[in-house]
Amino acid sequence: MRIANEAQIPVHSGEPEETDLKDKVASRYALGERLYLSAQYLNAIEVFEELRKKYPVHPLQQVALYWIGRSYMALSEFSKASLILLDFTRSFPTHAMIHEARWYLAQSLEQSGEIRLAMSQYNELAKSGNPFQQQAKDRLNAHEKQP
What does the buried/exposed string (b/e) look like for 43-66 if buried means 16 or more CB atoms within 10 Å of the residue's CB? Predict the structure, then answer.
């Protein structure tokens, strides 16, 4: 068990013996979310990567990939975040979180200096009716105004 200070949530929580695979996966996923929400991004990445390796066909492994990308963003590792989020958008194009993933992919690309690729993602979001459509249009307009 790794604990940097008393406030941290342990990565290996000693979860109770669960016989149901669904409960085991949900428990690990919930731990990853708690770690992410408590800004323990490296530990969250570790838990989500473990979940993806142990349960590659479980639907939560798809969302775990998304959270790995978001964790890298939070660590300002935008190139890594971009690769992970690009993998998510290509692997799961019909996932319920696709627009959100595309938005954060565009932001990661922009932060890593990949402006042309970021604009491509913003264009996709600006075309389709989704919660990020207006934000994407705003980013495109902001870039058009730059010299």
Answer: bbbbbbbbbbeebeebebbbbbbb
- Both tokens of residue 4? 């940097």
Among 29, 16, 20, smallest CA distance to 62 is for 29
Q: What are phi and psi of 4, to 5 degrees?
A: -80, -35
Q: Distance between CA atoms of 87 and 25, rounded to whole angstroms?
A: 21
What string of pLDDT tens digits covers the 147 residues of the chain? Answer: 443 433 455 555 454 444 477 888 999 999 999 999 999 999 999 999 999 999 999 999 999 999 999 999 999 999 999 999 999 999 999 999 999 999 999 999 999 999 999 999 999 999 978 999 999 999 999 988 876
Nearest of 94, 89, 28, 36 to residue 58 by alpha carbon: 28
Helix (H, G, I), strand (E, B) or coil at 96: coil
